[in-house]
Amino acid sequence: MPNSLTAASPTSRAKPVQIQLPPSQQINQWRQSFLSLNSTRLEQARSLMLERQTRVLDVLPILLHLNHPQLPGFINQKVPAGIEHYSPQANSLSALRYVAKGLQIPRISGIRCIQSIFLMGSLGTLAQTANSDLDVWLCHVHDMSDEQIAMLKAKCELIEKWAASQKVELHFFLMDAEDFRQGKQQDYVDAEHSGSTQHILLLDEFYRSSLWLAGRMPSWWLVPTEYEKHSQRYLDQLSDEQLIHDVHWINFGSIPTIPAAEFVGAGLWQLNKGLKNPYKSLLKLLLTQHYASQYPNIRPLCWDLKDTVHNGNIEALSCDGYLLMLNRVSKHVAAEHDDKRLELLRRAFYFKAHLPLTKASQGQQRQWRYQELKQIVDSWQWTQAHISHLDHRDEWQVHEVQTERNALVNEMLTSYRYLASFSDQYAKKIRINRQDITLLGNQLYAIYDAKPGKILTINPNITPSLLQDKISLVLSEENRWQLVSGTYNKEANHRIIKQSPSLIELLCYAHFNGLLSNHTNYAIYPEHNPLTKYELKELLQVVRSIARPKYIAAANYLRPSTPIQWQLFINTGIDPMHKLTRRGMQKLSSRDDALGYSALKENLVQSIDLLTINSWGEWRIQRFQGQNSLIDSLYYLLQHIPLARKQGWPEHLCHCFCATRSGAISLRVEQILADITEHTLEQPRVDYILEAGKNYYVWQQDKNGIKLQQADSVAKFLAILARPRQYYGHYKLDVNALSGSPLKAIFNNAKPGAWQLYFWHKEDSYFWYLLDEHGVLLHQQQKANSDSEVLIPIIRFLRQVDQRMQGRLVRKRARTLSLFELKRNNETTEFEPMPRRLPPRQKQTSQIQLNAILDDQNQVNIYCNGEEFSIWEWGTQLYQKVAATILNMRADNETYPVYLTDLALYGDESIIQHIKFKQGIEKDLNHALMALSTTR
């Protein structure tokens, strides 16, 4: 009569759960069923292995059981060893004789430090292949020191290397069953699983697929599924009643349910794994989705397996973990009546099996795997032609691979969206390690996120190779490049692999996805094309030299992505001098600057394709076209100044292979990019001036980042330079900026804190420039007969205003005022500043003192030799009245220009603002003078 015991449910406050312990015969039967199933599955696994694999597998327990100099992995006698309850069987002893001839197994004394060893993965299932790895869970005792664990790891690494020398891939994962049961993260987290995100799901997979090799057996097999939620109480009672002895069993924990958090983590992880193994990931992702749909009343697959075994069915295929998964997920997908999803699921399982039925050898056809898989696909009613098409996927065309990839990605993302919705619904119950979520989420973003110009992987291990013998590059009538496999024929209906305005995007796409090789032939259509064969050859050489991403460190995904390399492709497929050639303008002047070529100042940079490679391994192409292509690309790159201040600028390379002046263009862009990036870090407060074509550009930095001011004429450029500043603003000029302009000499001679007046003349036209203490520049042009006619009025005004500013205690000392005449150097043709003495003060006097005062509304009052003319008195006739007064004071009513002697503004304005108001008042006065002279 079995014992009746009571356990309280952890999820209910109702009456306690009655636990009915089985009789000892039942316990023994379940134990024997487990051992029989395990033995059968091991034999199935061995039947599919090569001799060298079975030899490594058979000797493996002995290598862990002993420390002996003749055995692989030996370090010293202090390394933890000894498997509990282990005695070598005949097959192990036979394998030992091959590895270490004549070695006799000594008697083990002392503590045995290894509790159990298991095989994990697809071994013994329909999914096993000749290339399946040996993944071993090595469970050690709980009280091992860190030093002992380190030694055991070292020994395992040596055994792995020895196995590799036997051409067998072996991996150990050390674990502590007690720590695992408590959810502590350990070495058992491998490439298939991710830390805190999948603890119970990992345990579910372990119970349905692991193979026990030696040591303690899993106590889980003794727990009926009805007591899964109370397994610890149940096992304690079995031990108390002496129905089992704890030393013979190892407890990894039970699966009462699956926490909500694990579905989200598992979904993210499988999506990321899908890039390398999409079909396996799809199966597991759909299983995870199915589990989530059952939450919270989940029935794990391992329960089905245990119930099957407890009911006496230990037939290997009925207990195949992959078939159990296939059947469960197929029912889940079939319930949605979506035939395409069901077919994709079936293809995923078929490909995961790695057994192409139409290519199987006679030996393979005799194996149990072939027979079982053939029976399955027959039940799906797959035709021989369809199976043959799947078996020849290594010959699939690019468009077929793209279609399959899109189906896989769409299914995976659909599953993920379901899991994301699930996580929102149960957000309060989800407690995932934020680092895991950041890592997995960013990997997902890097792999699957599609955005303009991003190069996506189209072959996530769908076919071994997409290498093309011939590729055609076609320029369509819409001026878009098309990538076509094989020889292009205008009359044929070709499948376009990819199209884009950017040829570089297509070449990077082809290289990134392995379409190109040294032997690939390329053709350009139409033949009369701006893209020359020479240019294509050089571009391909550059693109193919760029390393494709292989391994990205996990730490990279824990931080936002950052650019690590920039490649600039200039004028791809463009002859920048095509128009100049037709107009015969190439040699009209000595101007050979690529940004201001010939007398027409043509900007030869017509397009830039920017390839950005970032720290997540993403490639992205951004195309900039037209006269502003260089400026737009620079503006984009300079947005990364905050990043550059922390870790320096990314590596940047420039490439240009266009028909004319390609080397000069490439060097010029490289020089500008190097100059401006270095300048922004070394002199952030200094504005940078660049000239391209007929446009002027001023780059400024402030706390909010980079700003760009643009002018398409000299007048607009001068207006930018005349804007007020609070602090002194110096200018750094690009090497070719303002060539032949007086501004170049002025800025190179600028001095903070001073007023500098520059002038030059051509015939009767005089040009003067005032650079104030903050580096603000004001310009004026006027007709005059002599220097003094131009300079004396402005110098007199500057001194008068400065004197009044001192009187208002704005400053204690007179402002330094310097005068320079600008003259061209006969050899360089550049202007040079020549210091000039200021006119004596006695020459700066005027018979007519003309002062003005502006109030807070900028209303003007004018004083002519002390006589006041108020806007309030004269209104719109103010300037006519003042002009008439001036004419009456002059001999013969002469109408030469009038200049203000002084001007007082309401606020504490800059000298530039004074002069701007001065110029406006003088303009109105002189206009009134001319009007009066014509009426007299």
Automatic annotation (TrEMBL):
It is an enzyme of class 4 (lyase). One of its GO terms (biological process) is cAMP biosynthetic process. Residues 27-221 form the Adenylate cyclase class-I N-terminal domain. GO terms for molecular function: adenylate cyclase activity. Its EC number is 4.6.1.1. The keyword Lyase applies. Keywords: Lyase. PANTHER family: ADENYLATE CYCLASE (PTHR38760:SF1). This is Adenylate cyclase.
